Amino acid sequence: MSANLREELRRTADQAQTYDVYAGSVAKARRGRRRSVAAWVLLVAALALAVPFVSRSRPAIPPAGSATSTLPDRLGLPAFGSRGVAGLGAASVVYSGYGGRFGPFFDDADTFALVGAATEDYRTLHTGLIEDGVLLSPDGTVVAIPEQLVDLRTGDQRPLPGVPVAWSPDGRRIVVQGTRLRIVDVTTDATIDLGPADEWTSAAWSPDGRRLAYEQDHRIIVADESGRALGSFVPPGGSVLAGKGAWAPDGRALALLPSETRSWALRWFDPADGREVSGPDLPAIDGEIFGGSLLGWRPDGSALAFVAANQPRLLALTPGTAEPVSAMALPSEVYYLDIADRAIESGQVRAGDPPFFIGPLMWPRLIVGAAGVLVLWWLIRRARERARLRRVVATPWETTHGPLV
User: Fold this and answer.
1) Rounded mean pLDDT of 90-116?
2) Tell me, what DSSP letter sits at residue 307?
């Protein structure tokens, strides 16, 4: 090697940047430890946040009648991961509809949502694949579903011999439909048989709870509370009872609706003999209508009606007015709705506050899922680091750098 070449190599070596192997290794190890500590801190924090949500302690039971039942001015969709009904106390509204918020299938719902009687507390109840037959008791503390009564204070369930059709105003009795139509006393389980049930049956109790109108064999039958028939008539043109609020507030007339048309124009009939009579002059409902129900009467004399359509509506019908007015803004997904009698009778409305789309029971799942991903990432990173170290130790120097001499 010439002197010039040695001098050039020495000059190049002097100008080359040096790397402190020890300091670099220490810095890299510290960075790894910091990442590991941060990962474990995040995991512990996630689990700590999840603990309050996944607590399985029994919810406190609200005192009965602790607040006046009111209606929200707008309804929202239930959140994914909403709490169950235990501890709700009482509800003002129960409803269901299309889409993922109400079940795993777009057109078939297996979940009904409930809104608190006095607060914007949204809960959900899994009922199986049903479209209707879910009714709130007059005070909103019990919800009747096919084959069951569910206490909204405790979440306890009791058997019910059929599909609920109509609650009595005092909440002690309920009409149920199976192969036969029955009145069931919910405190004693005593039943009164009303005869064979039609495939589709509706019923309505008079405001004082002493008379019951129901459909049977294409007739409207009016009975007393013991089930004794007081009169019956054939409704004109296949008309049907307008809903659980079909009785006029004074109990002197029954409201019927045409069953084969999409118009909403009530006609009033004498419950004793079926003569058409005058009743509250409620405005007709225009627009596209798939179905609906007269739900009850407010203190100002107006009636609340739910109308199922592409854009469902809850309307207030005031006697003597030309048009109904909106009583509650509804999501377009809703196709079924019932309201507790006490919420209607209070006449009070509160500001609605629909929930965020992620509910309290969904957060733990998201947190635990994120923590799981974090742990998996850390394990993969550790495994890759160990594999790299094994390769470095196992590979001879000569393989990558050539002979030492």
Assistant:
1) 84
2) E
